[in-house]
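Job type: complex structure
Entries:
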Amino acid sequence: MTALGGAIAAGTIGDRVWLYSNYHCNLACAYCLTDSSPSSSRRELRAEAMVAVARQAAELGFEALGVTGGEPFLRPDMVETVAAMAAVLPTVVLSNATLFSGDRLERLRPLADLDVAVQVSLDRVEASANDDLRAPGNHARVVESIPRLVDAGIRVRIGTTLDPDAEVSVAEQARLCALHRSLGVSDEDHVVRPVVRRGRAAAADMGVAATVCDLPPELTITVDGAFWSPFGPTVREGRLDTDLLVTRTTDPLSVPAAALARLAEDRPAGDDARLGIR
Amino acid sequence: MSDRRGLLAAAGTDAPGLPLVALVTEGQAPLLARPFFAGGDPGPIVAALAQVPELLEATAPFLGAVLGPSAVPIRTKEIVVLRTSARASCRYCVETHTVVARDIGLSVTEVRALRGELDASEVFAGIGDQAVIGWCDALVGTGPVRPEAKAALRGCFADHEVVELTLLVTTTLLLNRFCTALGLPTSAGVLARLAAEGLA
């Protein structure tokens, strides 16, 4: 086993490589890390580059892939790209699930036969509270889309991002869990995490402050370089944060992976477990 | 090349008097670059290189080894850096190393001579100093190096010193073009010193 493979196996760095496929989005959520919106520049990773990252990640000993944005499925080539990546390693794609109807839903069907999960954002059980953070009508669209995906045979995860200042009650969280179960999503496929005070959330004075010690190291590839975690390549008021940049070099992937492992070795213990950042 | 239009992140400016790229601040220092900011403002060369932290991590130790204390006396090295920078017309390096040269004991007259404001052959009497200055003058530019400059240097320095002095001149030239191309700003402290000593 290589030193890097050992670092992955030991949990020194995460076993998943994340890719920011693009930065534009049809929504403009209040806490968005990347300040994404319909007017954001796309800043896309090329499809070939994403598949190349997948192949190199597997060779280096990584065990999973994640794709996020922006809204990845705004890209017309995303289904084919994810399919090619998932042929190499299990892949999760984060999505707002607002585009899955008609032809777009049909185009997703090949993903059902692959090791792909679509992680859909659903923050609150009450539509008004959810939509305040995300977009008018978002709750209804998501609740409509999830069963469609499930019926199409696509594994769905739900990602809930909570504003720690919102004081969401245990009862409300229980009702949210009841909702996702009713939509066909199991408890193990429900991820809850806090808003992290970076990007648009920082501008809006929302979320938990997190330093590099608080963020689990997960190699994250973007058009701007490789970052410490998917919470790294944040954009605030049009400017990219570089405080969690690891290297500008992303190909070969061994360069940022080795640098990340070296940095992670020296990392003091942080609060990622207590803060629930994942 | 990727589509980064619209992102202000790494954007500097091509406006006159301002650096071409954003100089990384301590708060935005990438992880590999953070050690270089731990002691305070690392200066504009490091702040620019921090845009590409893996290059900073490789380049800074190299520059430190070439420019820092070594087998060649610091006075000789500073003569090389200031003379080369002046011949290469690098404003940033000339201004910055004028102050460094004064701090390590070169006189105002010697500094002026190295900057080309006085005849260096009249100010520097030592054969070694003259050989080094001639070597700088010979290496700035293109094409073959003048045989007389080679002979003068070989007459005064051992092989390892020739190698080190040559690397020092060429590394200074690298920095001269880097600083000039990016329009790196001279610090307020250096400008104040230059003004105070009549060397602005």
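Summary: The mean pLDDT of chain A is 94. Chain A has one domain: 3-275.
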